[in-house]
Design goal:
This protein is 42% helix and 14% strand. The protein is an alpha+beta fold. The protein has a two-stranded parallel sheet with strand order 1-2. The longest helix is centred in the last third of the chain and has 14 residues. It starts with a strand and ends in a 7-residue tail after the last helix.
Length: 74
């Protein structure tokens, strides 16, 4: 089994730079791993007042559903 764990902190916003990441690279990596058949575990840490708005959580869920329509949250 090929498994990969990805830490998805936030969706597009300036704060991502403060965390030292580039969202496009993270999202592209998730898509690439899915296409190559990896079992991908996505971890999203929700930080009150930083990335926990309903809109942001919905955006994360939409992106993940678009990567793999059969994925489901647990």
């Amino acid at each position: 089994m090929r498994l990969y764990k990805v830490d998805l902190k936030v969706v597009p916003r300036p704060e991502l730079r403060a965390l030292g990441g580039t969202l496009k690279n993270v999202l592209d990596t998730i898509v690439m791993l899915e296409r190559k058949g990896f079992l991908v575990e996505i971890v999203t840490l929700l930080i009150p007042g930083f990335n926990d708005s309903d809109e942001e959580i919905t955006d994360i869920a939409r992106f993940l559903r678009g990567c793999r329509p059969t994925c489901r949250g647990t």
